[in-house]
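Example 3.
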Amino acid sequence: MEALSILSGILLLLLSGAQSHEPVLSEKLIRDISNYSEIALKIIDYSLTGPGANQSYNRLATFVDRYGPRLSGSSNLEDSIDHMLYLLQQDGLDNVHGEEVNVTHWVRGKEIAQLLEPRSAELSILGLGSSVGTPEEGITADAVVMRSFDELEERKDEVKDRIVVFNPTYVSYPVTVAYRVNGASRASKYGAVATLIRTVGPFSIYSPHTGMQVYNSSVPAIPTACITIEDANMLDRLERAGERLTIHLYMEAQTLPMVISRNTVAEIKGSVYPDQVVVVSGHLDSWDVGQGAMDDGGGAFISWQALSIVKGLGLTPKRTLRLVMWTDEEAGGIGSQQYYQRHREDADKYSILFESDEGVFLPYGILFSGSAEAKAILQQIGQLLVSINASEVYDNGGGTDVDWWREEKVPTASLANHNEHYFWYHHSNGDTMDVLDPEEMNLCSAVWAVYAYVLADLDDVLPRG
Amino acid sequence: MEALSILSGILLLLLSGAQSHEPVLSEKLIRDISNYSEIALKIIDYSLTGPGANQSYNRLATFVDRYGPRLSGSSNLEDSIDHMLYLLQQDGLDNVHGEEVNVTHWVRGKEIAQLLEPRSAELSILGLGSSVGTPEEGITADAVVMRSFDELEERKDEVKDRIVVFNPTYVSYPVTVAYRVNGASRASKYGAVATLIRTVGPFSIYSPHTGMQVYNSSVPAIPTACITIEDANMLDRLERAGERLTIHLYMEAQTLPMVISRNTVAEIKGSVYPDQVVVVSGHLDSWDVGQGAMDDGGGAFISWQALSIVKGLGLTPKRTLRLVMWTDEEAGGIGSQQYYQRHREDADKYSILFESDEGVFLPYGILFSGSAEAKAILQQIGQLLVSINASEVYDNGGGTDVDWWREEKVPTASLANHNEHYFWYHHSNGDTMDVLDPEEMNLCSAVWAVYAYVLADLDDVLPRG
């Protein structure tokens, strides 16, 4: 493009900007938000170099080192919730309590997969959440490898009495996770006896990743587990080379009756509108592998940290700042759904719900779902975070635990952070404290605290659509 | 620095260059080497887009998928050598044979480590090569965590009857590997009952890496295994938090009597000086985890490929081009040492030995050990590889299997390649075909073939120091 064209392009861009229909905030609201600039700097200092520095990382390390992973239904999870309630009380927060909910109780038990032909080799597996187990003697069957559901349809006549190995190329988590979630029933429809699904992720060092799967009730429930990317590719190559694949699979997995767990709640009570709330949240449960440090210890602990910072600075917002650490997110937001059902009648008192469940790496802003006017308010608040390069507001905020509230048009938001490697570790033994960084968590906590405090202290709850 | 200073600096540099004492090759030798430019281009084309394209990768995948990892003393290794001899014969190479050597026979057996206190957790381990096992009932003991040998010396009074966990920060492989190699005996000296060593590597997704360790015969041999970086850090944090660590370790590892294995040899017999040789090599044995694809299937197979390319192009060099796939490198070059002892009397007939055992990633040249004059010859040959950006010649070439020959002043060389992630996978279950790339292996094969062919075809063997 020539120089003149570039110049006219810029002019057009400027003109189109001037003609846009973005909501214009009132002078007063802009001034009100700008007035928080000193408080925002205090929050940032407190979190980066003050008493809050490295606090969320260190608290989380102590917590996950002590309790390990926290699967719904496990004593690990309930013990960790007991301790969390103690910690929140020790931190001097208000109204610390657990809200009881019914949660799933799936247990993995022992599990083994062995390649018998064309050579003997152990295959590292992780059974998928809600999977049934095998018979006591296990399942020994020949295997077929399918790279896609399309290939399954084309080769459906080869599937009966076979173990189906799915080896789809990773496109993105939301796209490729379909194989993990639906693979078992898609193959069972044609008579498969078990499925082994390539781990849903972009990179692996021979690490299988578990996760939820869902049976279609119209076909038999068959055992299903994930295997590593490396083994999926190896089995694929062997099949294409004409080798007969025989696999032995043994899984003790079973689903037990639901049990009672708790969403963990703590607050800083609002000084003027105590019934109105801003929620910051993450989930305390995790898969039963690794430490559940990243997913979602990090999100839960920066949310706690947001309240700790506000309290540590002696601030009391006009409305209530509520921390919720959800339970049984991993089975599909089981705890948060019951919270929503119980509290939805108060939807007009919820200004916004924040959830961090996609990493607490270097933050660069937030993602938001709500009205254009509400977004403009968040963008204005974002200006208070320019000094830490976290001022951007993107669309499509939310998360499994807060998206329920969209039905009531309550705004939701999540943390925009450099989580490019999130799916390297997600739902695997690699989800440990080594993935996280104290300074990045300090920054995330500051972002979370600035948004949460300012929104809890403005004159009004956020406008709906 | 000011502009005038920069200019005078450049002038000084030019002058010092002009005054250097680099060896000057004869006009004839420069011309002789330049005359290979057409052949070099043919080799490159053959390897990148011709019949050799992807051949080394595909051959290796078929091989490691069929045999898996190939630990010294295992039937896997011997079966794979049998098949390798068949493949080399099928490839039409000369003098295909196995040269018998005595090799180590260490077997891993079952192995388990469990953290009992302060909480119950499985610790993923890999016993270290040559380690003894535990008693049948295992070892249950409290653990102490040492970040360095210095700390061990300072805290030596705390070590008796304890399991010592070493958690040294990774500096580099040659530096940090001291903990894996000597950690057990260093701790045994002060009465430790076992050692768990943090995996020697810069990055992990909860993947333990095995490797060789060596007992000091003056202290009791105690069981020793590596643990993941993540668990080493967790145990370290727990100890610093004042927690008592109790670990149960069970290992069946044992060293059996040495057995006979083979170095695998194939040649393109020289047309003029058949008794003189250029050796290209890698090792066929591997640790008993992953597929031994990178370490060192890749090195062995690009070495084979070098001969395949030369043969495929119908070329016959003046002296013999010899492929050696060493056995039992992993225990310290056991197979290659015996080869050296058997053949060292012919050292003057060895022009150079190449070994690729540090990855077959994107190549950018070679590393060389030998006289300045020999290096100048290799630099001149490197000019034939400018078109694929692999013309550089660095110092300090060689490898475990060829360094023996330095005693006889025979030049050695290895492959300079972008192996920055080599130690992410090395000696772990992550060492699979997924780590390698067909096009990178094409380039490595071309580099290997050009150097090997030209050096085998020049009038003289490389000059000694």
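The domain at 109-252 of chain B is CATH 3.50.30.30 (Glucose Oxidase; domain 1). The first strand of chain B starts at residue 94 and ends at 107.
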